[in-house]
Amino acid sequence: MKKLIINPEYGMAGDMFVAALLSLGAPQSRVLDVMKSAAAPLGKVIISVENEKRENIPGIHLNLSLDEGLHGMEVTRAYEHLKKICVQKGIKGKYRDFVLNALTILGQAEDKAHMERQMGPHHSHHHPHLHEAQDIIIDLAGAACGMQELGIPLSSIICLSPISVGGGTITFSHGTLDVPAPATACIIKGFSMPITPGPVEKELFTPTGAAILAALEPEFVDREKFKGTIPGTGLSTGTGFGSMRFQSMNKGPNALFIYL
Predict the structure, then answer these.
(1) How many CA atoms lie within 13 A of 62 on its CB side?
(2) What is the model's pLDDT at position 121?
(3) Which of 70, 194, 195, 216 is the most exposed place for a label (fewest CB within 10 A)?
(4) Residue 152, CB half-sphere, CA atoms under 13 Å: how many?
């Protein structure tokens, strides 16, 4: 049986996970078609696949150029849109359920984080809302398609731990907040994810990455137990690069490694 091993030693983001699936062999034309179809009703998007080598490690970086006109979307609308895309593009069964669950997890985390930040009765009729909805829906659609195309079983996934979350602060629509972001922190706590700060003062574990990992329900295994076997005989490797460049980081690039 195939078994997916996820190694977020340098964090995990939605686009990095999709890029790693492409690097692992998921068909680019099919995955990009699904991602572009998911993006089309939400605004203009340009998605390109860039083959790169960082620190002599080959991998893929997904470059997304998004229309800034769409800043957010209610969770219920995002859920129905993603569900419709799954039907239209043939994302079926367990893969459809996985990605819709990931969106639900993220929506609940965003809502909880929002409510914890707000004060006053005027928020009593708040509707759950996703920020950066374009990015989220595109990444989730690509993740579901890539997993399905590779035929990866969803019942035997391993995540090497601890997960590196980074550090410092992040600035977005709600201001400047500590890393991990509030929604990420909610998911980490809710799913008892083993984490570690660093190794850089940047956001390495994003809300979408956390939601994907939570929905996959992996077995968390100490990374040290896999030393000497990754990469090893019988393992295919996929590397998804993030957008950050770590000038002072000697341990490795801003990358998510997955093994099959």
Answers:
(1) 29
(2) 41
(3) 194
(4) 28
